[in-house]
Amino acid sequence: MLPSADQLTHEAHPELFHYTSKAGLEGIITSQSLWATRYDCLNDSQEVFQIKPLLIRSLAERCKRYFMEAKTGNLSTKLLIAKHGGTVAASREFAIRTINSLYTVSFEGKPNSVAYMTPFITSFCSHEGDSEYERQNGLLSQWRGYGRDSGFAIVFDTKALWQAFEQDAAVYSYTTAQFPDAYYTDEEALADPNFQPLIENLFRYFLYAEDRMADVLGEALVPFLNLVTRKKHRGFREEREVRLVVFPRTEEIFRQFASQVRAEIEFTGKRKVVHTAPSGKSYVVLFEDTKRLPIKRIIVGPGADQREKVQFAKDLVRSKIQIVRSETPFIDR
Q: Which InterPro entries does this chain map to (predicted)?
């Protein structure tokens, strides 16, 4: 069951900017689709791992409080603490083991088993916190990042974009998906209403031990995935990223479930195909059956050949989309 996008995302970010190259613009307009890139092929080399130390630290603190309360009258707890070298060491060891298990099952897989929850991400910038100038002319750092004189910014209607994805999800099979803005600090992640409930759920894994491990971790899995795919390094804050994060069920996952659980679980929808770009990056195609992406306008970035790029964009969209020229001066650095 695909969750609805957070209404606050639409309200806080009514427009989203997708910066791309000349080739990227041509591909998006021609196909009326976007690529969602596999998490470990993105620019941030620590995608999904940025929040891991915070999760371990928070879960260890929760376990430590329990040990401190229980050890005075519980012999088995005393023995467990002594076995692991004290309250702090025992708490941290359990936290590390639990979080590592979630990462392994979700992203790495096990021998003879694929990862069940591989995220693919399409990134956008929000300029709602910027001035009117950035919203009309784009962000200079993004223009520099896309080759200085070959960049374009495609401006999307946020609500309509999610509605288009819901149509995609009605055809193709997804485990889950979300459309959040990114977190850049631990404080922002801690303020997420799902963070503390997740820690409590993972703590239950310790209380129930092996007899209910699968149930407890199963309940924690989706909140865990939602949190880890939102956290980015603070060095990327200027982008104010809003990301469409999808967890498609691929042919590989279908085959694995068929061999392991046979007819006990049935997935509806078509399988997503994972493609490999010439660069070696893995991606899936989104909005494959969308007739027209909800593009409001296209901003042509600064550069020595801006006039030629404007004409290129106009020829590409055939007057169906507004083309705007960025007034930011060209800086060749």
A: DUF2971 (IPR021352)
One-letter amino acid of 250: T
Identity of the highest mean pLDDT range in 105-109, 112-116, 126-130: 126-130
Q: Would you list the domain boundaries of the chain?
A: 1-47+119-184+240-333, 49-117+193-229
Helices (H), 155-231: 158-171, 186-190, 195-208, 213-228
- State how far the Cα of 118 lies from the Cα of 211, in Å rounded to an integer: 27
- Cβ atoms of residues 211 and 162 within 8 Å: no
Q: At what angle do helices 52-70 and 213-228 cross, to 10 degrees?
A: 140
pLDDT digits (tens, 9 = 90+) for 6-42: 556 778 899 999 999 999 999 999 999 999 999 989 8
Residue closest to 223 by CA, chosen among 250, 197, 187 = 197
For 199, phi then psi, to 5°, come to -60, -40
**What is the bridge-based pairing of β-strands 34-38 and 282-286?**
antiparallel
Q: Quote the tokens at residue 198.
A: 């997740």
Instruction: Tell me the pLDDT tens digit for each residue of 186-215.
Output: 999 999 998 999 998 888 876 665 555 555
> Of 152, 135, 157, which is closest to residue 299 (Cα–Cα)?
152
Distance (Å, whole) CA 35 – CA 284: 6
Q: How many CB atoms lie within 10 A of CB 149?
A: 17
Nearest one of 58, 59, 77, 76 to 68, comparing CA atoms: 77
User: H/E element holding 26?
Assistant: helix 22-31
Whether 198 and 227 have beta carbons less than 8 Å apart is answered as yes
- Asked if 110 and 260 touch (Cβ cutoff 8 Å), the reply is no
Closest CA to 61 of 35, 87, 100, 25: 87
SS3 state at 175: strand
**Is the confidence at residue 313, as pLDDT, over 90?**
yes
Q: Compute the distance between CA of residue 62 and CA of residue 154 in angstroms, rounded to an integer.
A: 45
